[in-house]
Amino acid sequence: MVYFVVTENCNLKCKHCYLSAGPEKKDTTISLSDFRKVIDHLPKFSLDLCLSGGEIFTIKNQLYEFLDYVRQNNQQRDNNRELRVILQTNGYWATSQKKIEKIFSELKEFNLSKLEIASNDIWHENQGLNIDKKSNILRSIWRDYFSKEILQIRGGSDKPFPMGRAKRLVSLSDFFKRSYCGYDLLNLSISNSGICIDTKGDVFTCCFKAFQLDGNLVNEPLEDIINRAQKTPRYIGLHKHGIKGLALADGWNEKKLEELISKKGECGFCFQEYHPEGPSKS
């Protein structure tokens, strides 16, 4: 999986947003030129490419240019090595049957792998967005335009990550004890593994930007960046054993490390010690 944040612009300003996305971030969208370079620098094997934000439909014209270029890129690949495109949206545009039909008719030509409406939660509801009320009509209209059941409607956690705007909302004690994250840099074709690309083309091992790899996808192929990373002890540890492996490579005492992870969970320990916005960095 390659998770690509193409913009931090958003129509909403939710309290839980770890990107602090909002209407004031209109200038954060990656340029079409840089987007093309990123796509050209992705591996030539089949993988999932999730385009997200922010809210991608606030930049609809650019989004369609992005999708058109991915389609062109796929035409140059073997059929079994295509980029499977996932769009992640908050679904704010689903205000009427006519508008839903318009979006779906426009998306049909891009051969999506999945449309994910990720807003069915309390934070988006507080901004006036309630996808629950529209889920039946969304699914009904979807079936009129697409043969595959590739529409997913899901919500987020009621305990967001204490980053970005959510730092004012969530205590660290609520954040600790989260689940383990995978850092399998060598198997991007596996859906539960992958990397994150930000709007500048920088590469991270998770969507919360905990670990930045050396290199930029605008300038060089992803395989070169990963090959360089996997030769370093830190990322060998991260790849094989997750946050524990990275911490041991950095010289942590194993007993002390086990105590901290037992108390805070791997995600809590990772955020506190490694994330640039973690408390030990403030």
Say which CATH homologous superfamily is assigned.
Aldolase class I
- Roughly how many Å apart are the termini? 31 Å
Number of domains: 1
Characterize the biggest β-sheet: 8 strands, mixed
Shape: globular
Let me know the number of strands: 8
Rg calculated over all Cα atoms: 19 Å
How much of the sequence lies in strands comes to: 5-15%
Mean pLDDT: 89
Contiguous runs where pLDDT drops below 50 for at least 5 residues:
none
CATH topology type: TIM Barrel
How many helical elements? 9
Q: Which structural class fits the helix and strand makeup?
A: alpha/beta
In N-to-C order, the SSE pattern is: EHEHEHEHHEHEEEHHH
> What is the architecture at the second tier of CATH?
Alpha-Beta Barrel
- Major sheet: arrangement of strands: 5-4-3-2-1-6-7-8
